[in-house]
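Help! Submission page says 'invalid entity' but I think these are all valid:
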Amino acid sequence: MNNLATKAKITWCPGCPNSAILVAFRQAISELVETEKLKFENIVISAGIGCHGKITDYVNVNSFTSLHGRALPVMTGIKCANPKLTVVGFSGDGDSFAEGIGHLVHTARRNSDIKVFLHANQVFALTTGQTTPLSPKGYRSKSTPFGSIEEPFTPLPMLLESGATFLARTYAEDIAGTKKAMIAAITHKGFSFVEIIQPCITFFDTREYFKDRIYSIPENFPVQDKKTVLEFLTAPNEKTPVGIFYNVEKPTFEEQLWS
Ligand SMILES: Cc1ncc(C[n+]2csc(CCOP(=O)(O)OP(=O)(O)O)c2C)c(N)n1
């Protein structure tokens, strides 16, 4: 763990759940390295632009900070050039579902063997809380002072339909749960997507909202049954299920490219 820290000063707001995501990620890769499932030198992390993107400064592994919304094509490029590498990316919901939406769905469609961890805070946090495609209808911000009139995307069913082969959701404050999902996502072969609910405590503090709504799905969830998974993820639900929802094997973009 100590080897993974850097000298960069952490500039997230004090108490921001991004710090919990950082801890979960450092723990996940420490465990993968200690159990010899991964070598430090074979890990590359990437990110878009936003509060989430600062994470590349805080983990002492190879990294590439991309442009806003453009981490995924960079990651696919890295994986194509050197398939030995394990490529993990961090993205914000503005980054992935606004600026980077085209890259997101096509990277999932190709089943590129990269892993995406979404810091889902439902706002453009770094630029002070504007509405993103995941903000709820009615959300008031500097960009929608009378309340957003648009319906938000729901990431997991959208990614399932796009072609992702691993899907999970976690709550950032649950470090053990996030670490577990990260390890499963990293060891999965193919496009993995983990939606990490990360309340933005400064611009859209949803901690109270999620406190009593989060619940874990059972360990024996039918993760290979796409129809059931889609029905579950799109069914009206007052609560917010977390866990691993989908996990199937399919040929990856990179292995087909080089075959
Ligand atoms: C192409 C482009 N558009 C807009 C910006 C300005 N910008 C920088 S960070 C940011 C917000 C990022 O929000 P999000 O991706 O949700 O990440 P968060 O800060 O919430 O982690 C924006 C809009 C930019 N850098 N590049």
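Support: the input was valid. A stray whitespace character was the problem, and the output above is from the cleaned input. The CA atoms of residues 24 and 175 lie 5 Å apart.
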